[in-house]
UniProtKB/TrEMBL annotation:
<dbReference type="InterPro" id="IPR009023">
    <property type="entry name" value="HMG_CoA_Rdtase_NAD(P)-bd_sf"/>
</dbReference>
<feature type="region of interest" description="Disordered">
    <location>
        <begin position="120"/>
        <end position="146"/>
    </location>
</feature>
<protein>
    <recommendedName>
        <fullName>3-hydroxy-3-methylglutaryl-coenzyme A reductase</fullName>
    </recommendedName>
</protein>
Length: 254
């Protein structure tokens, strides 16, 4: 039994249902909390009423898609932020590596993206297609970057892939720092068009770093991404282009 089969056996069945709402059944809350977004800090759910008094303790929870179970795991509330009108956004994370693996195998194997039809982590509406330095909104100066385009087997896999990238930003940043303290991943811009995902790696550079070092760092990130997808999820990823997006990117996409 391979790793994917092991995690699949750990998850309860997902029956068909109308709608695509994702929510979590969490202790102390009488109703499931709707998912607001996914980001690099975790899963963000919105709760009404008073904020929880305790954070940092793992609690048994069940993720739901259209009120049907997606997976059961232990989640920890890492952050609480006011959301207006007496509501709060709760950022939750799986309590350990096994929970993290279970979450992503559930999102991959149970295929909720076929119903959701959009990424859970907000993506960029437009990304420049060259590899030259560019400035983000509110920044004084440009940052160097490299771009790549990846092709996935289908649109739902592309949505999964884009969300997985955002969630694992810290791992990609740590990978960039292996090239020395003068090079660090600052942003990861993503864009989805059909079965393609465009990615732009934006870096902070302290001191002198050659263009070759920057390119090597981004290529290493691409190789790590492809290996993780293949080894953990048996998901084939084809890198279409490096330093520019695919020439046949769809209108309204990349």
């Amino acid at each position: 039994m391979d790793q994917s089969q092991v995690f699949r056996a750990m998850m309860p069945g997902l029956t068909s249902a109308n709608g695509a709402r994702i929510a979590v059944a969490y202790p102390s809350f009488p109703r499931p909390l709707p998912l607001v977004r996914l980001d690099r800090r975790g899963l963000v759910f919105r709760a009404a009423g008073a904020a929880p008094l305790v954070c940092g303790l793992p609690r048994a929870a069940t993720l739901l898609v259209a009120d049907e179970p997606l997976c059961s795991l232990r989640l920890v509330i890492r952050d609480i932020a006011p959301a207006g009108e007496g509501r709060h956004d709760l950022t939750m994370q799986p309590s350990g590596a096994a929970g993290d693996e279970l979450l992503w195998h559930a999102l991959r194997d149970r295929e909720p993206y076929r119903r959701i039809q959009h990424p859970l982590a907000p993506v960029d509406t437009s990304i420049a297609t060259d590899g030259e330095p560019h400035a983000s909104a509110g920044e004084a100066g440009p940052r160097p970057s490299r771009s790549a385009a990846f092709r996935l087997p289908c649109h739902s896999d592309a949505l999964f892939f884009a969300d997985w990238l955002e969630y694992h930003f810290d791992e990609l940043r740590a990978l960039s720092q292996q090239h020395g303290p003068q090079l660090q991943l600052n942003q990861l811009e993503r864009q989805v068009a059909d079965d393609e995902v465009g990615v732009r790696f934006v870096y902070d550079i302290d001191g002198h770093t050659t263009r070759h070092a920057l390119t090597d760092c981004a290529r290493e990130a691409c190789a790590w991404i492809e290996t993780e997808m293949r080894d953990k999820f048996a998901l084939p990823v084809a890198q279409e282009r490096f330093s520019a997006f695919a020439a046949h990117a769809r209108a309204g996409g990349m």
